[in-house]
Amino acid sequence: MRAQFVLSEIGVGLRRNLTMTFAVIVSVALSLGLFGASLLMRDQVSTMKGYWYDKVNVSIFFCNKNDADTGTNCAKGAATQQQKNDIKAELDRLPIVQKPVVYESSDQAYKHYKEQFGDTPVAGVVTPDQLPESFRVKLKDPTKYAVIKSAFSERPGVQEVQDQRDTVEPLFNLLNGMNIAAIVVMALMLVVALMLIVNTVRVSAFSRRRETGIMRLVGASSFYIQMPFILEAAIAGLLGAAFACVLLVGGKYALINNWLAKKIQVVNFIGWDSVAAVLPLVLLIGLLMPALAAFFALRKYLKV
Question: Where are the bilayer-spanning segments (predicted)?
């Protein structure tokens, strides 16, 4: 196989179908950019879950004197010290509970409340005696919350067992929904890119049907004839994948590092290692996907 001839044929094909080649590059770039972004978003959700689930607690709130009429567990009024001691002892015996179990008094709860809502109009409405005492329980496995809930939610003196994961779960559900939407759009763009690749290869093969016919008549193999077309598609796909990598790197630098990380400091964002792990996969798909599409499209259109 003469490399000079193959390269010249690639150049001819790219020049003849410049507009369609550009459309292929853009389509591949957008579809693979969304593909890479969906992988990074999945990593981001996993990183955030690991970060926040490690910090959230299960709170066991005790009845106070204002809760006598609010529920069955609090029908006898505020929780007694014996009830608190029994629950504390049982928590200390559970293997899923990280020690120590933290006790928060009404005054401490009020202090934390003032720190969080001190500048809001409702801050002056709440008094310390309205805030319940509680145990803050950290679990070795946060998914075992149901064990604590079932064991203590019906105990006398317990007003409520609350999992703080409920406050962050809607955010994770939103991010997962966005990830699914990105994957759907990526799949549609991928179909468009494949259709453009196939049409570009067919047009290129049709415009050079005389040359390919002569090559077949003089004994050229099918692979030798197909190679320029396959490489044209592979080069266009690789250029699109490279542009997708630029979009991912630029998005990480501009959107995450220089904007979100400064605006939302409580979130642990993904690092460059996650981006570096995605880029080779994007380049590999950008190279192989158009080449395979061109190979199967040419099986029919290069028969003479």
Answer: 21-41, 180-201, 222-255, 275-298
Q: Is the dihedral of CA 114, 128, 136, 176 positive or negative?
A: negative
Q: What's the rounded Cα separation, in Å, for the pair 61 and 71?
A: 13
- What share of residues in the chain are helix, strand, coil (percent, to 5)? 70, 10, 20
Predicted TM-score (pTM) of this structure: 0.65
Q: How far apart are CA 155 and CA 85, in angstroms?
A: 13
Residue 241 pLDDT: 93
Q: What is the pLDDT of residue 304?
A: 44
CA-nearest of 138, 181, 190 to 163 is: 138
Structure tokens at 120: 């809001």
* Location of structure tokens 């803050």: 136
Long-range contacts for 259-266 (Cβ within 8 Å, ≥24 apart)?
Answer: none
pLDDT tens digits along 76-99: 778 888 988 898 999 888 888 888
Euclidean distance between CA atoms 103 and 49, whole angstroms: 25
- Helices of type H across 141-271: 145-152, 165-207, 209-217, 222-251, 261-263
Question: What sign for the dihedral angle of Cα 67, 68, 73, 76?
Answer: positive
Total Cβ atoms within 10 A of residue 213: 13
pLDDT of res. 8: 58
Show Cβ contacts of residue 1 under 8 Å, excluding neighbours closer than 6 positions.
224, 227
Do 42 and 179 contact (CB within 8 A), yes or no? yes
Give the chain's residues under pLDDT 50: 1, 5-6, 304
pLDDT at residue number 1: 47
- What is the number of other CB atoms lying within 10 angstroms of the CB of residue 85? 10
